Amino acid sequence: MAKLLLGKEVNEKLNARIIADCEALKAKGVNPTMAIVRCGERPDDLSYERGATKRADLLGVAVKKIVLPEDVSKEELLKTIDEINADSSIHGVLMFRPLPKHLKADQDMICNRLDPRKDIDGMTDLSNAGIYMGKQLGFAPCTAEACMTILDHYGIDCTGKKAVVIGRSLVIGKPAAIMLMGKNATVTVCHTRTKDVPSVTREADLIVSSAGVLRSLTKEHVRPGQIVVDVSINWDEAKGGIAGDAVFEEVEPIVDAITPVPGGVGSVTTSICIGHVVEAAKRSLA
Fold first, then answer.
1. Which residues contact 142 (CB under 8 A, 6 or more apart)?
2. N- to C-terminal Cα distance for the chain?
3. With contact defined as beta carbons under 8 Å apart, do 92 and 34 qualify?
4. What is the pLDDT of residues 132-146, one digit of tens each?
5. pTM of the entire structure?
6. Do residues 36 and 90 make contact, with C-beta atoms less than 8 angstroms apart?
7. Which of 47, 51, 61, 209 would be 245's cystine partner, CB 3.0–4.6 Å?
8. What one-character-per-residue DSSP string does 227-284 give?
């Protein structure tokens, strides 16, 4: 039976630090505040918003919700971002992506309108550059950082380990690969054009699966002794709930350790998000 790398344990330590930092900031007259920018009423956006708001309330961070219609114009959204940039009471911004279809072509330009100092989820080019350069420019995407935080909490030393990341998105796959290299792992990235993915993943010591495909990581992909970080959140119609990429009932008995879904990376991601707001508030005093 694999060891379960539970997000709850990670959050207990992480949240205690965030609460202490919040209290210290409030003693200096600073109320850490996050703006949530949502265009439309997508169910997944609403679900994440509820979770983020609940976690912010728990940890002492104020939330300002800015809800725009799904058909919002590019000009109106840019105006909203400019107003947020100019508002010194807002320290961090969570803007749900992808943006509506009519804004898809301009999404990069719109995201880069945000002040990188308030970019708490790796939306801007400058934040992403910070990851690749190993410099503190903005913040890393919350989900990728949550993976690293879990590994650190459970004392998993990546030095010299062979790591395989499944997925190459800018939100998880690519930043996770770079951050693993920063921890001295030797990293291979698999994607939709990779041939014979199971033969690659079986050679790994650590697998980070962010394919976003239900039941795509099977017993054929793993071997004893491995650590699996299952990042994805997929809807499993059969069980009427969320599940990761891993066929958990197949993979868990084989590997040494695995993050469950739910209860793993997702729960830590929300705390990382709120922690970035607090850190942005601290930097604003520098």
1. 120, 121, 122, 269, 270, 272, 273, 276
2. 48
3. yes
4. 877 777 799 999 999
5. 0.91
6. no
7. 209
8. EEEE---EEETTTTEEE-SB-HHHHTTTSSEE--SSSSHHHHHHHHHHHHHHHHHHHH
